[in-house]
Every structure is written in structure tokens, then in C-alpha cells.
Amino acid sequence: MPGTRRTPLQRHGLSYRERMALEWNDDGYYYYPSQEERRAAWERHRDLLLAESDRGWRPQAWWDFDAPGLRIRPPRDPAYVPAGLWEAGALAPEEAAQLEKGWREGIRSLPCTRLVWALHRPRQEKRHVRHMAQR
Q: For residue 135, is pLDDT > 50?
């Protein structure tokens, strides 16, 4: 019985290895014979990979090829990547709004920040907060 040949899963003409080389640089310098070929692959698949990235994340190829032209450097701590992209204005408006909403909800859920948020409310609400604090 002849063995079956498995082909790599390809989505939109992009193999798993190609995707990993562009998204995570997983053996990217070894998968593509040169940086020029990796850049060409990024140019071909940029729209697809960026459409699939969200919430402040960018593929490694974006950091390697697009970010330097925008004068954006990746933060040392990966947890700060969304904030760095937001600060640099490199997020789509919907993506920025989604992140801001998540950040606000996270901050408001902290017990020690409820009073701080109350103090940043409009003037008429501040009077109520002051009155409640005096009780």
C-alpha cells in the first residue's frame, strides 16, 4: 500500500512555515534564503497578516520592515507593545478604541482607582462625589 504524501496546510497561498517566519520569525532567517526574499514575502502577504492581527499585536515582519520607516521601536517588554503602538498612532481607529475600552474597564475595576475616576468626572458630578466623601 503506497504511503500518502501530506502537503502543508496552506491558507491564501501561505504555508505554515512561511507564516511562522513572517509572524514570529520562527527560523525566518533560515526559511527564506535572504532578507530580500523575506521582505518580498511580507509585501505579498502583508494585508492578510495585518488583517488577522488585532488588539495591538503586529507580526515580526512588520517590526522588521514597516516599523523602522515609521520610526517605531518595539518595547523591551512585550506586554507594552499595544501601548507603544497606540502612543505612536500606529493602530487603526477601531483597534485603538477597542484597546482604550479594555484599558478603561481594567482600571475602573481596581478598587483604589474608583475615587480617581470619580474625580475626573464632569464638574456637577464632582460636587456629588465631594458630598459623598464628607459623609
A: no
Q: What share of the chain is helix, strand, coil (3-state, %, to 5)?
A: 65, 5, 30
Decide if 118 is inside a domain.
no
* Structural domain range at position 57: 10-91
In a domain, 22, yes or no: yes
Residues facing 11 on adjacent strands: 14
For the segment 16-73, what is each residue's pLDDT rounded down to a tens digit? 888 888 888 755 556 788 889 889 999 999 999 988 887 788 999 999 999 999 899 8
- DSSP-assigned letters across all residues of 82-111: HHHHHHHT-S-HHHHHHHHHHHHHHHHTSG
For residue 81, being part of any structural domain is answered with yes
Count Cα atoms within 13 angstroms, Cβ side, for 30.
Answer: 5
